[in-house]
Amino acid sequence: MTIPLVSETTEVIDGVDNIINKVQYALSNVKECIDGCYDSTELCSIVTTEPIWKTLNELVKRGIRLRCISDINRENIVCCKRLMEDGHQVRHLPGIKTNFIIMDRMKCLANLVIEDKKPLWQIIVSNIKTFVEGQQYVFDTLWSKALPAEQKIEEIEDRVDDCQL
């Protein structure tokens, strides 16, 4: 039996609708796991972009492991809680300035960090083995150093409570 070779490719996708369609399609083909690293603003776009959110929830129902790292703050704490409530493993690392997801350790989707409040306009999609392995190494290293989200959320909420006294 011969195993078909998958050609290694990298493509750039432009335009919000094209990006949503590509991400949704790529996510729907995940078999085991998704690891994601997001800056503090991109994290909420996952929750608020309905087609992506719906696809992620379907993956959770299928038992797919979803892990994400972000800079958790007062502005995105509600989104972090929603991710956790819906089955995502979330960790905090201050100062994250990158956005990428790795699917099944075989494909990476990445976008540049753009100015705050501007819409996503371009992503890179790659299955080049050395690139994906490099991004997975970065993710695994950051994951091992990041705090559990529950710890950071408690710290933020305690600070808010202290300010209200």
Key features?
globular, alpha+beta, 165 residues, Endonuclease, Chain A, eight-stranded mixed beta sheet, single chain
What does this structure look like?
The chain is an alpha+beta fold. It has a single domain, classed as 2-Layer Sandwich (Endonuclease, Chain A). The protein is 46% helix and 23% strand. It has six helices and eight strands; from the N terminus they run βαβααβαββββαβα. Helix 1 packs parallel to helix 3. The longest helix is centred in the C-terminal third of the chain and has 17 residues. The model has no long low-confidence stretch (mean pLDDT 89).
Q: Which percent band covers the strand fraction?
A: 15-25%
Q: Overall mean pLDDT score?
A: 89
Largest beta sheet: what is the strand line-up?
A: 1-7-6-5-2-3-4-8
Radius of gyration: 16 Å
Structural class: alpha+beta
Name of the CATH class? Alpha Beta
Which stretches are low in confidence, meaning pLDDT under 50 for 5 or more residues running? Answer: none
Q: Which shape, going by the Cα principal axes?
A: globular
Examine the secondary-structure arrangement and name the CATH architecture.
2-Layer Sandwich
- Report the sheet with the most strands, covering strand number, pairing sense and barrel closure: 8 strands, mixed
Distance between the termini: 70 Å
Q: Count the beta strands.
A: 8
* CATH fold-level topology: Endonuclease, Chain A
